[in-house]
Write a structure and sequence with these properties.
Blueprint (H helix, E strand, L loop, with lengths): L4 E4 L4 H14 L4 E5 L13 E3 L5 H11 L3 E4 L5 H6 L1 H21 L4 E3 L2 E2 L23 H20 L3 E2 L1 E3 L1 E3 L12 H11 L2 E4 L7 E5 H13 L11 E2 L3 E3 L1 H8 L7 E4 L4 H7 L8 H7 L7 H14 L1
Parallel strand pairs: 1-2, 1-4, 2-3, 4-5, 5-7, 6-8, 8-12, 9-11, 10-14
Antiparallel strand pairs: 11-13
Helix pairs in contact: 1-7, 2-4, 4-5, 6-8
Bound molecules: (3R)-3-hydroxy-L-norvaline (VAH).
(3R)-3-hydroxy-L-norvaline binds next to β9.
Protein name: L-threonine 3-dehydrogenase
GO molecular function, one term: L-threonine 3-dehydrogenase activity
GO biological process, one term: L-threonine catabolic process
Length: 315
């Protein structure tokens, strides 16, 4: 059957690249980009775009009625740092946006739904190293709380109503095409821009703050591999742990110096994002993703760094 895919939150860091990849696979007209503002990236104007606010259930209903989607990706969210500046909006957008989509996906018999979670679902008492799929999860950011609650709702809609909803706990995502959206891991993007522009960067996370990260190319490929996997291979209906490469700002700076020898990295003190980072794991065990749908990252730190710098120089 012809796929008709709706991507809600298509202008974001993930949505920008996911829409491009999905259109490459299924064709422009089979992928409808939806957001509350027009795309400012190189998506062909002819390809379908709709203004949608995911908090307006009637608006989403109109789009589902118009396009009768076979797949829906819901990417709209407030991330960890911006969420702490506006906790109630973060909860409202991240939670009610999801519940609107889950309900309408049932009503319109959407075949598959995708919703991103995050390693932000882990908290201060979660294991820090090689953090397992199932363990203590006590997130202390609104973003993490909303993602943990959202995972529970996804599993509920799957088990109670049979909705085929799939999810991945993304680590910090690093990309060059679209601006990051207010996350705690965004230092690992800004550092590349500043290294090329000024040869220096001041990190808002401390030198020894090790966090799980991933290159966007890996994240997009893994997401589509998950969505393409047969339903009976999916054993995790909350959200899959997902791992790329973990590093600290200091280790990243050393890798950048292999390309920009005089690059200097300094550190800011008392940035509120440090507390958020301190509550997250240093590394993630993603063996369920490897076992269930053959996940394997392709970008290590050297390859990620080279690709970021090469593409930013050209863009
Ligand atoms: C954030 N980039 O920093 C996101 C991500 C694991 C972090 O979820 O909020």
């Amino acid at each position: 059957m012809q796929e008709k895919i709706i991507v809600l939150g298509s202008n974001g860091q993930i949505g920008t690249e996911l829409v491009t990849m999905l259109r490459k696979i299924y064709g422009d007209d089979h992928v409808v980009a939806c957001d509350i503002r027009r795309p400012d990236y190189d998506i062909k104007n002819s390809a379908p775009f709709e203004f949608v606010n995911v908090l307006d259930k009637e608006m989403i209903n109109g789009i589902f009625k118009k396009y009768k989607p076979t797949q829906v990706y819901l990417l709209a969210a407030l991330l960890s740092a911006t969420g702490e500046q506006n906790p109630k909006l973060a909860w409202d957008l991240n939670m009610n946006g999801l519940l609107n989509v889950l309900d309408l996906a049932l009503e319109y018999q959407v075949a598959k739904v995708y919703w991103p979670s995050s390693i932000a679902v882990f908290g201060p008492n979660s294991p820090k190293d090689n953090t397992s799929q199932y363990c203590v999860m006590d997130p202390n950011t609104v973003y993490g709380i909303s993602k943990l609650a959202g995972e529970r709702w996804c599993e509920y809609y799957n088990q109670k109503y049979g909705l085929d909803v799939r999810s991945i706990r993304y680590p910090g995502l690093i990309s060059w095409k679209a601006a990051p959206g207010g996350g705690t891991t965004d230092y690992a993007i800004h550092i590349f821009h500043e290294a090329l522009k000024k040869g220096s960067y001041q990190s808002f996370l401390s030198a020894e703050t090790e966090l799980p990260m991933m290159y966007m190319d890996d994240a997009i490929r893994g997401t589509i591999e998950l969505m393409d996997a047969p339903a009976d291979q999916i054993s995790v209906r909350s959200s899959y742990n997902f791992s790329g490469v973990s590093f600290t700002p200091e280790v990243l700076a050393a890798e950048i110096r292999k390309h920009i020898p005089n690059f200097t990295l300094t550190y800011a003190d008392n940035d509120p994002r440090q507390q958020i980072a301190n509550s997250w794991p240093r590394s993630i065990d993603d063996h369920f993703a490897a076992k269930d749908w053959g996940w394997k990252p392709e970008f290590d730190l050297a390859k990620l760094t080279a690709d970021m710098l090469n593409n930013l120089k050209k863009s």
